[in-house]
Amino acid sequence: MTGGPPDEVRHHHPEGVVAEPTGDGLVLYLPFPESLHLLDPSAALVWQLADGRSPADVSSAVAGRFPGTPRLLEDVVRTLDDMVERGLLIDGRSL
Fold this sequence. Notes:
This protein is α+β, with helices and mostly antiparallel strands.
């Protein structure tokens, strides 16, 4: 991530995204550009929690569901960055 520390960045869901549960993950439909994305359980949880919370807050919530995961904050930040690149999330710095 570029810019300030990860705790200062807040991510949000883009308008028009449709999320449908599938088993223990999510399928996300983006209308523009039109695409489907299948998220596994951990990525689905990160996406659901990216509602204006800081990466540290998202990481804390994920730790409750996946305890004992090493380097969890790093993994969450990397997942958030990947979701921004794919258009699944909006980086709060761009709002």
